[in-house]
Amino acid sequence: MSIRNIDSFTHTRGESIYLDDIPVIAGTLYAAVFGSPVAHGRILKLDLAEASAMEGVVRIFTYKDVPGKNQIGGIVPDEPLLAEDIVDFNGMPVALVVAESQEIAHAAVKKIRIDIEQHEIITDPRVAQSKGQLLVPPRKFKIGDSDTAFKQCRFVFEGIAETNGQEHLYIETQGAYAVPAENNAIKVYSSTQGPTAVQKHMAAVLGIPMHRVEIDTTRLGGGFGGKEDQATAWAVFCALAAWHLKKPVKYSLHRMEDMRMTGKRNPYSSDFKIGLDEHLKIIAYEATFYQNGGAAADLSPAVLERTLFHCTNSYYIPNVTATAYSCKTNLPPNTAFRGFGGPQGMFVIEAAIAKAAEALGVTASEIQQKNLVKTGDEFPYGQKMVSEAAECWDKAISLYDVQELKNDIAVFNASNSLYKKGISFMPICFGISFTKILMNQARALVHVYMDGSVNLSTGAVEMGQGVNTKMLQVAATVFSISPDKVKLSSTNTYRIANTSPSAASATADLNGKAVQIACEQILERLKASAAEQLNCNVSAIEIKEEAVLVNGRPSGLSWNELVLSSYLKRVNLSEHGHYATPGIHFDNTIEKGHPFAYHVYGSAVTTVTVDCIRGTYEIDAVKLVHDFGTTMNPLIDRGQIEGGLVQGIGWMTMEEIVFDAEGRLRSNALSTYKVPDIYSVPKELDIHFLETSNDNLAIFRSKAVGEPPLMYGIGTYFALRNAVKAFNPSSDIGFSAPMTPEKVLMGLYSKKENK
Amino acid sequence: MVQFILNEQEIKTNVSPGLTMLDFIRYNRHLTGTKIGCREGDCGACTILVGELKNGRLSYSSATSCLMPIANAHGKHIVTIEGINLDTLNAVQQAFAEEGATQCGFCTPGFIVSLTGFCINEATPSYDKAIDAMNGNICRCTGYKSIERAAATVSNTMQQRNGTSALQFAVDNRMIPAYFLGIESRLAALLNNAVKQEATGKKYVGGGTDLYVQQHDTIVDEPLNFLYDKSELKGISRHGNTCVMGSATTVTDIAESKIFKDHFKELPAYIKLVSSTQIRNMATIAGNFTNASPIGDFTIFFLALDARISMVNGETKREIFLKDFYKGYKSLDKQPGEIIEKIMFELPSATDLFNFEKVCKRTNLDIASVNSAVCLKMQDENTIATASLSAGGVGPVPMYLAKSSAFLLGKRVTAALIHELTDIVQSEISPISDARGTEAYKRLLLSQLIKAHFIKLFPALPLEHVMYV
Questions:
Q1: Which of A359, A676, B305, B371 reaches 20 to 30 Å from A704, CA-CA?
Q2: Together in a domain, B186 and B146
Q3: CATH number of the structural domain spanning residue A285
Q4: A2, A7, A9, A13: best mutation site toward chain B, by most B Cβ within 10 Å?
Q5: Does A219 lie at the interface with B, CB-CB under 8 angstroms?
């Protein structure tokens, strides 16, 4: 069954309700945050007098107004909601203005004065590490013995690889709307991927139990990880003000506030060392990752862990030592972003392979292909692989006539000096599950109403990925009823408790299985009820396309009649399903286990053309083969592949976050931070849906598709690099993403000999 | 008072004329389909259509409502997503739904409105034009391929329009509601009866595309004087070899001008490098000049044409060269109260050579790292009589490269000449490192763009190897 995104009707008509579209209650007040103008220092004086005196300003809150704990750190309690005496990033919330209008609140923020004794500002993770500024202790994954193995390698290469951060640029900015309720309770509409995280921190900040905090999320205008932990602060701010003032309080951030005050994808600087034998088998690999965590841990420790999990990408390497430091710097706390550290780890091994290939005079694809992971191979973290890597690779080579593609490019490059083409191959292997085992659980609440219609609540947050459509498909499929009979409700902490955030690509799997379990239980009761009515064995009953069948033949009883008659017989038509992924475990004292339910594989071939006068470029084509298991919704899954790929290409090409030495964000608006537009995407984009038959734990065997395609974008970096090298083989272009037109031009002409 | 038609409804309002149309739509009229993404015209989530009578005929163009003062809507038809909804999905919406071209949905109304703008434009429809209509809309979810497929579907339908009027065809094909057919006469009646607004403020606003980016939080309540719709500041005309443009000429006016198309054969390619469809529809040339950005695309374009500007201040008028307008960073030879009235320049003849180059992080809808333009009058095929060379992003002001231009007088174009030229260019500029690139990059890039001018303008000469540094 492939159905359209169930929101497409209201989306295309502008009738979908996002946070800023919720009709406001009379008397609603508006919030705005005053962020530190200095990236590191001690607050000497905070002067609120002028701002407080402005007409329309209701009250200005500081940390002193927090009734519970002034703390919102997700993994480590190191992040105050409002700064107390120390500020450690530019934009760190110091005071919260509440006023009668958004304009007044913003105007008042400008009237706040602060004296700060400035401390040393660190923005570079390597500097932070050298000074012992770590957010959490370092981690090390190890398999075999790389020290000894390097001595036996025929070829050894070392280098540095760097990836910059990435702004999420969800088009809907962060925001929340808090409405006080009776008996010291509160209802908060929050644009969050993690309603439970918001609920938990809000309760702790307000000093009330979680059962008094109702978080409601209908949908997000994009998340991409940026609203996993970082949506919390804004919701808690609104709640704090609403709790004190007993008035509804709303805050929908201006884009520049959002960009300045929220964290981004973690930048990394990494050292690599790769050793190969004479057959180009990778025998040993060492990598040291310096993750730029920003000023607080946020999700960086978990991001760091996934970097280690994916440090060998799709390759089997018998001897690996990978060390990772989560470094504390004076930037906004960096956070989850589609891929969650995996892309950063994969970039480094791809750089190592490219470096080896260039030195050895072979193509990177030769090394890549020879080292693809096989079923039964063990990854550094101990999991034995069920591999589709070779299937994806081989299919891409044959389906897309890669040999001819390579020949065409060679001919083009030989006959053109103004333009050069480049090609690259990018295999991916991405583990599905939250790496924190306890988070791999979900619940769903299914109500069948007496008229036969069905209402579904889950812990999944719809943010464009189509998860609600998939949830609806699960219910409609299990019951064998028309999709029109099923309605999704908002994600609400009063209906579904203790949710995991919608993240890790696992949302459809976890919540879908919970929906499936709940629906199956109701279905069993309905079948029993039907058997009783029809005087037959339960095993003879089947419900198909809203008709009750007995031994495959129509009984005359319809879904609607069965539901109503069952209700009249006092059969329970509601169920709360619970699912916990079986078989996964990980022991981080030894850094070994079986953390992933399964892996997603794929292979992309990217071709680009570089304008060698101007340093500009176009992406000619990305042709990929992707392992879907068996897709349950090709339309939605294609959208995830296309969107993920382009987001990855953006990260690797034009998206450049610029902080100055003072820790001020220079790329602080859409005019200075560019994401792909409609002209900059690959001209050709072919996706082959590879059906793979190995058993997996995905919902309906339809593998998770949210994050993996982002990493195909890494191929664009290496294709561009190859084109630069085709023009200037002696270019000293390093491994530093993004590959902006500036880097291309400088690379084209570095050490370029005159002809 | 500002009077206009919003979707089907006539509006008379006394809100501050500087209020953005976006805020009026969302928070005054509670039409929430128009979204806020950036408030600086860079995402297109707030796109609306603006219908206005030109010579009595109604025509529509798209605009980012976040940068549009409501005063600029006077006497016009403002269309939001709500204004194009039918009972069921319209044809554009249907195409988006079927192709999965909407994911989170937040950018979607903006895309739908932009593509609808393509559907009701009288120009001959094509797939490329459908895509161009959405070039100011950013989507962070889809990667645009599904949007391209939806645009192809819509564009296919549009191919059947033939001679039918755009609005009639769009109504017949379920793209817009039928009330659109009555708008032309309703606007004419409205304009007849409306009280002409008198602007008295001291601060001048044209299309708003720079001022509303820079001063979004203060400008709304300032006393403003709106120039965008002043008929005396409109129009492009030709007097002998001289082209005279009103200062409120928009980029779109230039793009559609026969005079420009006749004299700049690469015009569509240059235009494509400049902002987006929505912004081009709003941004005025004088606004580009007076914003004084060192990187203003049309400032660089007209500097190479050695354009003159006439300034008016009440009864006082004067005329200066554009290159003399810039005194220092954001400092102009302009008195308080003075505005640019007209822009004059000599149209390139058939033997003159003109080129414009621009490189930025993202090829389209981005601010240049460096841009440059050149206009050469030729003695013979390969010998330059006179030259005008300009460059942006390489100094505190948009630069007319006087030394470099003078150097080219009477010179024969050779590879050696271009190398000498780039050395002189380097001596004239003083770029700084910023978010758009390092100093070293901007220096290298400008030399490359200078070379690109010559490689492009002299295809018969063996100049390819000048690209090597």
A1: A676
A2: no
A3: 3.30.365.10
A4: A13
A5: yes
Domain count, chain B: 4
Residues in CB range of B442: below 8 A, 6 or more apart: B369, B370, B393, B394, B429, B431, B436
Residues A106 and A243 in one domain: yes
Q: Are B298 and B320 in contact (CB under 8 A)?
A: no
Is A135 domain-assigned? no
B127 plus B242 within the same structural domain: no
| Angstroms from A461 CA to nearest CA on chain B | 11
Catalytic residue status for A707: yes
pTM of the predicted protein model: 0.98
Contact B441 A642 (CB under 8 A): no
Residue B286 shares a structural domain with residue B335: yes
Contacts of A419 (CB under 8 A, 6+ apart): A412, A609, A610, A611, A612
DSSP 3-state of A688: strand
**Residue A95 belongs to a domain:** yes
User: How crowded is the C-beta side of A33, counted as CA atoms within 13 Å?
Assistant: 31
CA atoms within 13 A on the CB side of B202: 3
Contact yes or no for B109 and A14 at CB 8 A? yes
The model's pLDDT over A582-629, given as tens digits with 9 standing for 90+, comes to: 999 999 999 999 999 999 999 999 999 999 999 999 999 999 999 999
**Is residue A477, in this structure, part of any structural domain at all?**
yes
Domain membership of residue A272 (yes or no) is yes
Question: Do B206 and B237 have their domain in common?
Answer: no
Whether residues B189 and B59 share a domain: the answer is: yes
Question: Which residues on A lie below 8 Å from B141 (Cβ)?
Answer: 222, 464, 639, 643
Residue holding tokens 């309905």?
Answer: A526
**Residue pair B230/B248 in contact by the 8 Å Cβ criterion:** yes
Closest residue, chain B, to A634 (C-alpha): B100
Helices in A535-604 by DSSP H: which ranges?
559-568
Please identify which of the residues A591, A656, A707, A753 carries the catalytic annotation: A707
* pLDDT by position in tens, chain B (length 469): 999 999 999 999 999 999 999 999 999 999 999 999 999 999 999 999 999 999 999 999 999 999 999 999 999 999 999 999 999 999 999 999 999 999 999 999 999 999 999 999 999 999 999 999 999 999 999 999 999 999 999 999 999 999 899 999 999 999 999 999 999 999 999 999 887 666 678 899 999 999 999 998 889 989 999 999 999 999 999 999 999 999 999 999 999 999 999 999 999 999 999 999 999 999 999 999 999 999 999 999 999 999 999 999 989 999 999 999 999 999 999 999 999 999 999 999 999 999 999 999 999 999 999 999 999 999 999 999 999 999 999 999 999 999 999 999 999 999 999 999 999 999 999 999 998 999 999 999 999 999 999 999 999 998 888 877 6
Does the distance separating the beta carbons of A20 and B36 come in below 8 Å?
Answer: yes
Q: Confirm or reject contact between A106 and chain B (CB < 8 A).
A: yes
Count of domains forming chain A: 3
Domain of residue A307 covers 268-434+590-749
- Looking only at the bridges linking them, the beta strands covering A249-252 and A29-35 are parallel
Does one domain contain both B378 and B320? no
Domain that holds residue B303: 230-346
The residue of B22, B87, B106 whose CB has the most chain A CBs within 10 angstroms, and thus the best one to mutate to test that interface, is: B106
Choose the final residue of a domain: A556, A580, A604. Answer: A580
